[in-house]
C-alpha cells in the first residue's frame, strides 16, 4: 500500500488507525534510526500495513484490539528499542537552536551526575538529522522511557510518597540554581518518575494503561513496597544560564500561565519563577488529594505574588523540611486519595476545581469510557 494512501488527510477526523502526517515523518526517519541502532515499532516501518485490514488476519479484525493501531501522543516523541541491549527508549525530535541540547549535555556530564540532587533526564544519545536547504537544524535526542509524576492511572496512596517526591523536586531545582540554571518551566507535566520497580513489565510509551505489547493491562506495585522512586525533570527548551549579575530575563511562558510577574517586555527573576512554578505543583497536589493540607504554608510561601517576597529555592526546601519534621511517622503513613472519583459512565459529574487540571481529568475519564 503506498505511503500517501495510509496518511489521514483530515487530522480532525475520527481516528481510523492509519498514519498521520506527523507519523509519516517518523517513517522517513526509520532507516536513519535503524542505522544508529534503534528499532521503531512495525507501524513505522516503510512497508507497514494495518493488521486489521489483512485478509488472512482472523484474530484482530477489531482495530481497537490490534497493537499496531497505537499511534503517537505527541508528534515529536516516539518510542523505540535500543538494538545492542534491548533497552526501551523514547526519542524526541528537537530544533537544535531552540531546545538547549547544550544544557542537557552539560547536566549529564559525569561530574554533574555525581550529585544525587541532579534529577535531569538522562541523555543517552544525540543523532543528527540531515538538514534540508533553508530549514533549521534538527536532531534526535534519546532518553529512557519514564512515567508521569502526576497520573490518574497511578495516584499517590500515602502522604510519605508525596513528601519524598516533592523533596526530590525541590532538591533538583536547587541543584540547577546552584549552577546558575533556571528551568523556567518547572511545572507538573515536566516531572517524571522511574517506573522500573513499580511497573516491572514496563508500560507502553504511547498508552500507559498497557504493557509494551500493546495488549496487556499493566500491573502496579505500591510505591512503599519497592522503596524510593527516582524523579526526573524533562523539557529544558526554556532553560538557560543566568550567571551572577545577569539574573533577569523576559518572556517565554511555560505551563503555569498565572505567574504574576511573567512578561514579554518587563524583566523578571527566572529563579523566582521556578519557585512559583514548583509551588504550583504543591497547589495541584493539595487540590487533587485529601490529606495534604500540611503543604498549604509551603504552597503559599512559594507562590507569593510579589517575587521580592517569595522564597528562594533553598529557603523553600528549608521550610518544607521543617514542616515535615513536625509530622510523625504515623501521619505520613496514612492513606490519601484523590478528591474527585468520577464515575466512568458519568464523567460530567465532576465538580469544577480551581487547579489547572479539570479538562485533562475529564478528558482522561471520557477516553477510558470509550475504550
What's the structural blueprint in terms of helices and strands?
Elements (H helix, E strand, L loop, with lengths): L20 H15 L2 E3 L36 E6 L5 E8 L5 H7 L2 H4 L11 E4 L9 E7 L2 E2 L10 H20 L2 E2 L8 E3 L29 H4 L4 E3 L6 E2 L28 H19 L7 H7 L10 H13 L3 H4 L25 H13 L1
Antiparallel strand pairs: 1-2, 2-3, 3-5, 4-5, 6-8, 7-10, 8-9
Please characterize this protein's 3D structure.
Residues 64-360 form the Protein kinase domain. GO terms for molecular function: ATP binding; protein kinase activity. This is Protein kinase domain-containing protein. It comes from Psilocybe cubensis (Psychedelic mushroom). InterPro entries: Kinase-like_dom_sf, Prot_kinase_dom. The protein is α+β, with helices and mostly antiparallel strands. 29% of the residues lie in helices and 11% in strands. It has helices at residues 21-35, 101-107, 110-113, 159-178, 223-226, 270-288, 296-302, 313-325, 329-332, 358-370, and strands at 38-40, 77-82, 88-95, 125-128, 138-144, 147-148, 181-182, 191-193, 231-233, 240-241. Strands 1-2-3-5-4 form a five-stranded antiparallel sheet, with helices on one face. The chain has a three-stranded antiparallel sheet with strand order 6-8-9, with helices on one face. The chain has a two-stranded antiparallel sheet with strand order 7-10. A hairpin with a 5-residue loop joins strand 2 and strand 3. Helix 4 (159-178) runs antiparallel to helix 6 (270-288). The chain is globular and about 65 Å long. Mean pLDDT is 86; it is low at 1-13, 342-347 and 364-371.
Amino acid at each position: 500500500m503506498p505511503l500517501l494512501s495510509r496518511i489521514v488527510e483530515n487530522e480532525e477526523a475520527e481516528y481510523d488507525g492509519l498514519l498521520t502526517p506527523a507519523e509519516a515523518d517518523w517513517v522517513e526517519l526509520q532507516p536513519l534510526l535503524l542505522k544508529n541502532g534503534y528499532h521503531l515499532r512495525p507501524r513505522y516501518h516503510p512497508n507497514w500495513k494495518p493488521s486489521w485490514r489483512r485478509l488472512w488476519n482472523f484474530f484482530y479484525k477489531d482495530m481497537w484490539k490490534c497493537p499496531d493501531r497505537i499511534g503517537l501522543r505527541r508528534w515529536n516523541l516516539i518510542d523505540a528499542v535500543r538494538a545492542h541491549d534491548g533497552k526501551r527508549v523514547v526519542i524526541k525530535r528537537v530544533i537544535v537552536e531552540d531546545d538547549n541540547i547544550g544544557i542537557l549535555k552539560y547536566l549529564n556530564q559525569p561530574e554533574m551526575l555525581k550529585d544525587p540532587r541532579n534529577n535531569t533526564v538522562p541523555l543517552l544519545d544525540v543523532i543528527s538529522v540531515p538538514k534540508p536547504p533553508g530549514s533549521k537544524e534538527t536532531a534526535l535526542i534519546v532518553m529512557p522511557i519514564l512515567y508521569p509524576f502526576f497520573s490518574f492511572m497511578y495516584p499517590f496512596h500515602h502522604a510519605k510518597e508525596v513528601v519524598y517526591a516533592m523533596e526530590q523536586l525541590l532538591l533538583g531545582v536547587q541543584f540547577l540554581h546552584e549552577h546558575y540554571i533556571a528551568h523556567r518551566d518547572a511545572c507538573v507535566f515536566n516531572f517524571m518518575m522511574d517506573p522500573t520497580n513499580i511497573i516491572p513489565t514496563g508500560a507502553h510509551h504511547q498508552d500507559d494503561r498497557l504493557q509494551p505489547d500493546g495488549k496487556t493491562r499493566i500491573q502496579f506495585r505500591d510505591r512503599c513496597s519497592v522503596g524510593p522512586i527516582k524523579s526526573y525533570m524533562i523539557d529544558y527548551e526554556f532553560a538557560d544560564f543566568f550567571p551572577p549579575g545577569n539574573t533577569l530575563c523576559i518572556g517565554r511562558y511555560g505551563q503555569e500561565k498565572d505567574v504574576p510577574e511573567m512578561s514579554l517586555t518587563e524583566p523578571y527573576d527566572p529563579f523566582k519563577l521556578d519557585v512559583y512554578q514548583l509551588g504550583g505543583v504543591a497547589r495541584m497536589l493539595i487540590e487533587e488529594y485529601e490529606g495534604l493540607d500540611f503543604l498549604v504554608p509551603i504552597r503559599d510561601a512559594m507562590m507569593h505574588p510579589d517575587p521580592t517576597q517569595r522564597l528562594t529555592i533553598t529557603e523553600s526546601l528549608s521550610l518544607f523540611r521543617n514542616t515535615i519534621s513536625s509530622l510523625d511517622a504515623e501521619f505520613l503513613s496514612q492513606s490519601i486519595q484523590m478528591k474527585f472519583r468520577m464515575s466512568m459512565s458519568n464523567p460530567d459529574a465532576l465538580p469544577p476545581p480551581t487547579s489547572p487540571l479539570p479538562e485533562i481529568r475529564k478528558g482522561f475519564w471520557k477516553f477510558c469510557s470509550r475504550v
